[in-house]
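chain below, 195 aa
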Amino acid sequence: MLDTLHKLSDIVLKGALVAAVAIITLYLTWQEHTGEHIKQCDAFFTGLIDSAVKQQATDQAKDSLLYRIGNYGRMCGNLTDQQIQNIMNVMVPQRVEGAVAETGGQPLGWVALSRIPATKYADTNFDPKSGKSTFDVEDIIKARWSANIRLKNTPVDDGDNPVVGVIQAGTCVKILARDKGIKNEWAKISLADCT
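prediction:
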């Protein structure tokens, strides 16, 4: 009887060891697969952003990027609308090129004149008329550096104010309307001669 009990406990102990090894192996395999999947999804997401940054925001490029975002969703889980909008917003805007005659003085969109508060030189994107320290409607101002033209005059971190063009450094624009927002002072602008 003691011999039988010894054999039975030996079988149970070996069975428990085999089960423990199997469970640990299964867990490690699952962790390895999950880790690889997360790495693949991270690489895919980084690739989406890299692709968006390098493309000009044409309709064809947007459709292609949306297709890739859909593939990402099937593989890694759907992105939120906010994440999709943020990816689309990093695409290179189509440049606004040309002379004043080509735009006919029509509004191009909104630009951030400055941050609020504008305490440093780098906080202001445009130079006001010589001798002035403020911006007024009808002023002709000059871009200090490239500035994004946006669809609206709302905070850009909300993700719903896409870039619709770029004003290059040294380009003059006319202020058609002004708005003091939460984070920026905005101006609706049209191209203008610097003279």
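Helices lie at 2-54, 59-76, 81-89, 100-103. The mean pLDDT is 80.
thats it, cya
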